[in-house]
Amino acid sequence: INAEYMGSMLLETAPVTVRVRAGIASGPVTAGIIGKQRFQWDVWGDTVNTASRMESHGAPMRVHVTAETHAALRDEALQGDFEARPGLEVKGLGTRTTYLSKEHAELLPRP
Fold first, then answer.
1. CA 66, CA 48: separation in Å to the nearest integer?
2. Mapping DSSP to helix (H, G, I), strand (E, B) and coil, where does residue 54 land?
3. Cβ-contact 23, 58 below 8 angstroms
4. What would you measure as the largest C-alpha separation in the chain, in angstroms?
5. Catalytic residues
6. DSSP code for 96
7. How far is CA 45 from the centre of its chain?
8. Rounded to 5 degrees, what are φ and ψ at 4?
9. CB hemisphere CA count around 75 (13 angstroms)
């Protein structure tokens, strides 16, 4: 779970600065194939919507996760790579504690 690394890989090949955000939520989803002529795989559910909210409330070059996802990280070293954001008002979800990955300055684009 390293948006900074993903962004730095893109920056090496892209002619413009690319700054990515990522949101992750854990929970049940419904998935399936849609379409009659051109088939596409899609995923639906509250977990998908929550992940989208995490991304939109996040910051460039960082990963924003729900408390449930943070708790599911079994490696304490990974949990330490996140800082708590208590009392964040998330549209449609209310006030929640979420976690944002710490910024790694060495991976950010140079001016």
1. 12
2. helix
3. yes
4. 48
5. 53, 91
6. E
7. 16
8. -60, -45
9. 5
- Kindly report, residue by residue over 42-62, the tens digit of the pLDDT: 999 999 999 999 999 999 889
Task: Kindly indicate the confidence band of residue 79, based on its pLDDT and cuts at 50, 70 and 90.
Answer: confident
Beta bridge partners of 96: 88
d(CA 96, CA 25): 13
SS3 10: helix
Q: Which residues contact 69 (CB under 8 A, 6 or more apart)?
A: 24, 25, 26, 99
Pick the closest to residue 1 from 28, 29, 24, 27 (CA basis).
24
Report the amino acid identity of residue 88. L
Global pTM value: 0.74
